[in-house]
Amino acid sequence: MFAKQVYVERRQTLKKKLGNGLVIIFGNNDAPTNYPGNTYRFRQDSTFLYYFGQKREGLVGIIDIDNDKEYLIGDDIDIDDIIWFGYVPSVAELGKQVGVEYSAPMAELEKIVKKAQKNAQEVMYLPPYRHDTMIQISDLLGIHPLKTRECASVKLIKAVVDMRAIKTDIEIAEIEDAMSIGYKMHTTAMKTCAPGLTEKYITGIIEGIAMSYGEKYSFQSILTMHGEIQHGYPSEAPLEAGRLMLCDAGAENMEQYCSDNTRVTPISGKFTQKQREIYSIVEACHDLVLEKAKPGLKWKDMHLDVCRMMTDRLKELGLMKGDTEEAVQQGAHAMFMPHGLGHMMGMDVHDMEGLGQNYVGFDDEVQPSTQFGLNCLRCGRRLQPGFVMTDEPGIYFIPHLIDLWKGQGLHKEFINYDAVEKYKDFGGIRLEDDILITETGNRMLGKDVIPYHIDDVENFISK
Known about the structure:
three-stranded antiparallel beta sheet; globular; alpha+beta
């Protein structure tokens, strides 16, 4: 937890942005796996953490702007809980730790909300993503549970996004800490990678590292020989000589800040010439972002610059053809990269995505696209100092997509399908790092860089 004043100042800033109303910020509850007493590892809601700091389950934060009051709502634990889990401070004590003066049991929440409604206060909450919270909101406000997301306060969403998008120095330090754990995870995966070991085995090792040094891993690890599958979760398949292992994984540190990196390792220890050629394109696109990303640049434009470079280089290999600008405008390149260049990152590995991607990554100037590939760009807005972005270009040869487009004759003026046929067993390559947008440009986060240049990768895994 940060110092008390951090949370006090965050709530004060939120009040100034909103001006009036009653803000309800729901914490998370325990979630059962297969019976009530066997729960998933608890993870507090990120926005609740941002403003109220406490990690205990069953809490709700109230900010009454009109009456200048703040509450931490929740029930104190009883002796039965203490026997099993140990002593936990009272809700009042938890509130004082983060500068909240008032506290009340959960039964008082409805009374506070009803009083606000009676006094014609605007009651604001954020979009819920857990069904128990949807039901709680439904009971409080008389909204059908399935309507609770669309009835969330847009004004509150935008205020929270404005604040959380700009990472302060103390937040950057926490992300750097998560990066140090991520470095251990990825370098271990690269060193461990060898024919015969299973995807699942290596994943277990690196997720154990995340649990040992931090709170947990920041998302379900992607580790696979089938790099063409965007979310290729590990299987029991043994690694095969001559193929590539793609590892997309990250850590969440003790303050719930995340890392997110992707590396590709040749299972035999050396890249083939074919693999080198494709890898070098992704490597160049990755480094183009490090060269160009800066405040004021639209992330959508950065994405399209990467797509142009990728198209040019694929043309050199004979996999694409025709006018580069026209190919990119029509989305022909998306057969090879059907996702966006990157996303914001912070306490959520896809930062604030639960608040609605249109509010997080887009604005009145830049709106989401419906074009295949570009529709998966999670952020398009202008970069600002303090943004943390992932830089993750990739090239994929997806057999079913290739067959579909070829059968439809789609973009045949830009794609050399006869040449692409020879790559259908290739897999995919993605390189991903996390960058901080600075006042003048950007810098890669992490004290130590996970090797990603071709020769560096081969030299690292050979030692």
